[in-house]
Specification:
The chain is built from 8 helices and 2 strands. The chain is mainly alpha-helical. The chain folds into 2 domains: 116 residues, no CATH class; 46 residues, no CATH class. A two-stranded parallel ribbon has the order 1-2. The radius of gyration is 18 Å and the shape is globular.
Length: 170
């Protein structure tokens, strides 16, 4: 399923408008600055026999594994590959055919019926996409940008601090 770059950008712009300046948004921006690149598989196919692949040439972008190792060794930031991918997707620094397809389907499934969508809530949309693409719910979630916050940051939101105090009292 091919989607225009403009369709994807419109969806991302709408999501960015929803997000306020939060510690998590600042964190996403910091990770993207450290990545210092933009990976889009339409522009560069680094797979063997890919459109622009030549023997002996390295791809221009950092792989997730190499960037994960760099973050850990240089900055002391420990992130799983999937969390790192989701952060880069949220910051619009990483896009693949799968992530574009999942995001487009999510926007269609969650759009209101009057706007031509299915009007599903987020969880129902994730399950429907997983069934449609024959992948796991987790694979769908990984390819969607964060909607509100990145969890387990050092700098916590007011609500996260409140919940932590409540749990300590319990």
């Amino acid at each position: 399923m091919k989607h225009s770059v403009e369709e994807i950008r419109q969806g991302k712009r709408a999501q960015k408008e929803k997000m306020k300046k939060t510690p998590s948004q600042n964190y996403v921006l910091m990770i993207c600055r450290l990545y210092g690149d933009m990976y889009d598989d339409r522009e560069e196919d680094s797979k063997i026999k890919g459109l622009d692949w030549e023997p002996g040439l390295k791809s221009a972008h950092k792989s997730l594994g190499a960037f994960q190792k760099e973050l850990d060794e240089t900055y002391g930031i420990h992130l799983s590959r999937t969390k790192l991918q989701k952060i880069l997707i949220t910051g619009e620094c990483w896009t693949t055919e799968r992530s574009r397809e999942v995001q487009w389907l999510y926007s269609q499934y969650t759009a209101e019926v009057k706007d031509g969508g299915l009007g599903l809530d987020g969880n129902a949309a994730i399950q429907a996409i997983a069934k449609h693409l024959e992948i796991s719910d987790v694979s769908v979630i990984i390819n969607l940008p964060y909607g509100k916050v990145v969890y387990d940051l050092e700098e916590k939101t007011k609500n996260a601090k409140r919940i932590e105090r409540f749990r300590m009292k319990k």
